[in-house]
Amino acid sequence: MKKLLAVLAASTALIGAAQAQEIKEFNIGILGGENAQDRMTSNECLRKYAEETLGVPVKLFTPADYDGVVQGLLGGSIDMAWLGASAYAKTYLTDPEAVEPVLVKANLDGSYTYHSIGFARKDSGITKLEDVKGKKFGFGDPNSTSGYLIPSVEIPEVTGASMKSGDYFGEVLFTGGHEQTIVAVANGAIDAGVTWADGQGDWEDGYNSGALRKAVDAGLVDMNDIVEIWKSKPIPEGPVVLRKALPADVKAKMTELVAGLHARDAQCAYNVAAGDTAGFVPITHDYYGSIIAVRKAQSN
């Protein structure tokens, strides 16, 4: 009898543990870069597929800045996100056990890198960084890899000066995101800025993928009206991350869904990946060691 009771108790414990592992909803965070409604529209297909896959309500969250997504992941209110490498580095440095990278966007040539692109209006006469001396220069978001971290390290190597307002550029400011930077340059509100692109394909199209491609698709900019004035070294593409605390089967299902998105629905993959892509492929934490080191050095 005692053995039977012990077995029943163990079974009850296992059932309770399994029930505790069930989720009631799933939340996907979308980094800034374009306005909230466009982010919602671009990722609605992913939301629907995730809801079908998990069998629970799935919601999209579009915080005003990158840190909103980072804090959501750290606090447990966001379960999955496609982060930039710098935002992942911040998340990891804050809590190494918060999230795990599972996938990365692959370019059409199979590479997992992209570039920070410096650009200006063609009619401004600006063709290189040196021409922006004393003028207004725009970053996107403090937690953006291409919109701040990398250019803040590499541009001073060209100018020989810091990125502080008045040191080289007349004024250095944050626009709030990639789309905002593109619009600010196109409208003449600032003289030059930086954004992201895979650097592949044609300039006239905004390259194959990235913020410029999204801006062209949205009719926000004509690439013939702007000119590239600087291009960073290759940057590790940011990871799709999942909260480590999620049940294993949920993580497996969502990883499989995103990995198979391109084959299942090419237009959805285009929308989610900000342009042409070869799909999402497996990646690990080790790929981001260099960015984590740069981010850590910048915070000291």
From TrEMBL:
Q: Where is the signal peptide?
A: 1-20
**This protein's UniProt keywords:** Signal
Pfam families in the cross-refs: Phosphonate-bd
Annotated GO biological processes are: organic phosphonate transport; transmembrane transport
Kindly state one GO CC term assigned in the UniProt record: ATP-binding cassette (ABC) transporter complex
Q: What InterPro entries does its record include?
A: PhnD, Phosphnate-bd
Domain of life, per the record?
Bacteria
Record keywords: Signal included? yes
The family note in this entry says:
Belongs to the phosphate/phosphite/phosphonate binding protein family.
Name of the protein? Phosphonate ABC transporter substrate-binding protein
